[in-house]
Amino acid sequence: MTPFTTVAAYVPPGVGMLAVGIVTEVFGPHGAALPGFDFTLCADRPGPVPTDSGVPLYVAHGLDGLARADLLIALPGAGFRTPPAPAVLDALRTAHRRGSVVAAHCVGTFALAAAGLLDGLRATTHWRFAELLADRHPEVTVEPDALYVDEGSIVTGAGAAAGFDLCLHLLRREYGAAMANAVARDMVLPSHREGGQAQYLAAPVPQDGDDERLAEVLGWAREHLHEPLPVTELARRAMMSKRSFARRFTAATGTTPHAWLRSLRLSRAEELLETTDLPVEEIAHRVGYASAAVLREQFVRRRGVPPRSYRRAFISTP
Questions:
Q1: pTM of the prediction?
Q2: Distances (CA, A) of 109 to 38, 57, 100, 183
Q3: Strand, coil or helix: what is 105?
Q4: Helix axis angle, 257-275 to 209-223, nearest 10°
């Protein structure tokens, strides 16, 4: 599959401005160091589109702007309970038949379901509306806890800020971890979050001096991935007991210290596999694993392929 270069986002009436900001931020310019995308916002017709903020958004392109997109993203809108106009559904179906990747997050998933693109597939949406999606479209397997669901040419994401997870996943999938990590760093975001939506239903983030210490410890851990980094050491640096550290860490990040470190190590390993000729054994040591065998076990379990196969597949990608 050739990586997408043209990206179009469908802007429905009552569009969420957060969603517009997410796709614009991810696929907009990031400086000369990163490849740019031909990015377009499209609506039912050119002109002002009402938004959830009450401030109209002027969109210069109509549905014809979707025709040349390699990646089409249906954004969430306030009127999602009513199926989009037939012309919109036709545009989504035509893009999919043409070979484009079609994606949506939050209640934008309802448009893909209405177009029949999710029949027989797994999908997700905002947890609040997962039951409604399942009731209306029993032919779709709804996964209410997932941050995103990748079905190849169809990718769906959860609600609100999980749009970032969806977009960064698409970058990682087609351009590699180095690209996704660079864009995430530019936006000061984690390049990959472990876990699903359930962790965010009631996960208050503590707001006191411990937060600052926790942030410092996370920054220190990123710079010392080559070390074992037991939770006891992280807790000591945060000046907390191991139990208090684990509890505050989960509240602040939505995952456990072990899962966070594993994700960070594998993401860094992906980047080194893509951008260097280092032996896998050396990469394993640089990201904190005792041997190439341990890295291979984690890589296969979490990424589905061994490190060497990942490297070959990435290098052979056009």
A1: 0.68
A2: 23, 21, 16, 24
A3: strand
A4: 40
Q: Count of residues for the chain?
A: 318
**Any idea which residue has 């951008």 for tokens?**
275
Tokens at 308, concatenated: 């060497």
Residue 221, token pair as written in the block:
């851990």
Please provide residue 190's backbone torsions phi and psi, each rounded to the nearest 5 degrees. Answer: -70, 140
Q: Quick one: tokens of 138?
A: 């029993």
Tokens representing 298 are 């984690």
The pLDDT tens digits for 99-142 are: 999 999 999 999 999 999 999 999 999 989 999 999 999 999 99
Classify residue 104 by its DSSP letter: E
Burial class (CB within 10 angstroms; exposed 0-12, middle 13-18, buried 19+) of 219: exposed
Element (H, E) at 216: helix 209-223
Q: How far is CA 114 from CA 7, 132, 253, 266, in A?
A: 22, 13, 34, 37
